[in-house]
Amino acid sequence: MDWGMKNRMAQLIQSDGRCLFLPIDHGYFQGPTRRLEKPGETIEPLLSYCDALFVTRGVLRSSIDPGNARPIILRVSGGTSMVGKDLANEGITTSMEEAIRLNVAAVGISIFVGTDYEHESLLNLSKLVDEGEKYGIPVMAVTAVGKEMEKRDARYLALCCRIAAELGARVVKTYWCEDFEKVTGGCPVPVVMAGGPQVDTELEVFEFVSDGIKKGAVGVNLGRNVWQNDFPVAMIKALRAIIHENATPKEAQELFNSQKSGKQ
C-alpha cells in the first residue's frame, strides 16, 4: 500500500483500529431530511466527536467550514430519488479529479446486490476502485438495500460485503444484523456499521453497536440515530465511548443520561 493510501486510511481508522463516521449525505436521494435541513448547523456541535464526515460535494462546499473540518468521505454515487422508480439505478456522479480537488480522505459508492441494477452498480464500484488506486484514494462500498429492508440478514449482507472486498473496496459499510460475525468473518477488509433495525430507545442503538464491535466491526457510520436524536451531542459522545473506550451499553446509557441532563 502506497504512502498516500496508508495516510488516508489512517485518517479514517484511528490508531486503536476503530472509527466513528458521521454520514450527512441523505439529501442526495431524500432531499431536506428531518433535522438535516441545514446541514452545517446540524453538524457543527458534533464535528469534534466524529472521526470523519460522509457527505456530498454540494453540501461540503456550501455547509462545511474548510478551516474546521474532519476527514471527508465523499459520496460519489447517485442519480436516483425516493420518488423515482428504483433507488438501485445509481451512477457515478462525481469524478476522482473532483475528489482530489476537495482533498478527501476517501470516496463512497453504493452497490445494490440482487437488484435489477446489480451489474451496473458493481461495475461502477470496480471503475471507481481503479481510479482510487491510481491516486491513492480509498473507496468505501456501501451495501445498499434500497427500499427492501427485509434483505438485512447475515447471509445476504455477507455476500454483499465479500463481493465489495473482492472488487477492491478498502472499507465496506453495511447494516448490523443478527449473526453479524458471519458478515465480518467473510470480509477481508474493515467493516463499518450503518443503522441496525428500527429501534425505539437509545439503549437499543448502544446494544447493536456494541454487539457489532464485539463481532468484528471496526466502527460505525451512523447518521439519523445521532442527529435526529433530541440530544445529538449526548448521543455521539455515548457512541464514541463504546467505539473508542470499550464502554458497555449500560455505561453508554449512563453517559448519555448525564450528558443530556447537563451533568458532567
Question: Which key features would you list for this structure?
Answer:
264 residues, alpha/beta, TIM Barrel, eight-stranded parallel barrel, two-stranded antiparallel sheet, 12 helices, 10 strands
What does this structure look like?
By secondary structure, the protein is an alpha/beta fold. It has one domain (3-224): TIM Barrel (Alpha-Beta Barrel). The protein is built from 12 helices and 10 strands. The protein has helices at residues 3-12, 27-30, 39-43, 57-63, 96-101, 118-135, 154-166, 181-185, 202-214, 224-227, 232-245, 249-260; strands at 19-23, 52-55, 72-75, 77-78, 91-92, 106-111, 139-143, 171-174, 191-193, 219-221. The strands form 2 sheets. An 8-stranded parallel barrel has the order 1-2-3-6-7-8-9-10, surrounded by 6 helices. A two-stranded antiparallel sheet has the order 4-5. Helix 6 links the parallel strand 6 (106-111) and strand 7. Helix 9 (202-214) runs parallel beside helix 11 (232-245), helix 9 (202-214) packs antiparallel against helix 12 (249-260) and helix 11 (232-245) runs antiparallel to helix 12. The chain starts with a helix and ends with a helix.
| Order of neighbouring strands in the sheet with most strands | 1-2-3-6-7-8-9-10
CATH homologous superfamily annotation: Aldolase class I
CATH topology: TIM Barrel
- Biggest pleated sheet: 8 strands, parallel, barrel
Structural class: alpha/beta
Task: Write down the domain tally.
Answer: 1
> How large is the share of residues in beta strands?
5-15%
Tell me the overall shape.
Answer: globular
Please give the radius of gyration in angstroms: 17 Å
- Count of discrete alpha- or pi-helical segments spanning 4 or more residues: 12
The helical percent reads 40-55%
Distance, first to last CA: 43 Å
Q: pLDDT under 50 segments (min length 5)?
A: none
Number of strands: 10
